[in-house]
Amino acid sequence: MDLENDVMELITNSGYARSLVFQAIRCAREDGDFKQAGMLMQQAQDSLSEAHAVQTRLIGEDEGSGKIPVHLIMVHAQDHLMNAIMLVELGKEIIMLHQKIDR
User: Do the record's keywords include Disulfide bond (predicted)?
Assistant: First the structure.
């Protein structure tokens, strides 16, 4: 197990998902391009799924017994993941609102 790479993968995939959600919202708001917004949201979900898979694997390896050391960078990575999860859900709602307004 290479914990440093796993942590960086959590951060980068979560950050990429976050960026994609903001791009999707911008597409919906500024251009009314809901097809592109949907494709960006799918990419965000895919990136989030990759990050979540890393998290799930780490949890499995830890087995709730503290086998994996928790450092500030790990907490930072988890924070990125939690924020990305929340933003993907919120982004879906914001895009749906823009679709309703655009009708």
Answer: no
One-letter amino acid of 73? I
CATH 1.20.58.80 fits 3-102, yes or no: yes
Structure tokens at 85: 């999860």
What are the structural domain ranges in the chain? 3-102
Report whether 79 belongs to an annotated binding site.
yes
Tell me the two tokens of residue 76.
């930072």
pTM exceeds cut of 0.85: yes
User: Which is catalytic among the residues 52, 71, 76, 98?
Assistant: 76
Per-residue confidence of the chain (103 residues) as pLDDT tens digits? 588 999 999 999 999 999 999 999 999 999 999 999 999 999 999 999 999 999 999 988 888 788 888 889 999 999 999 999 999 999 999 999 999 998 8
Active site residue 52: no
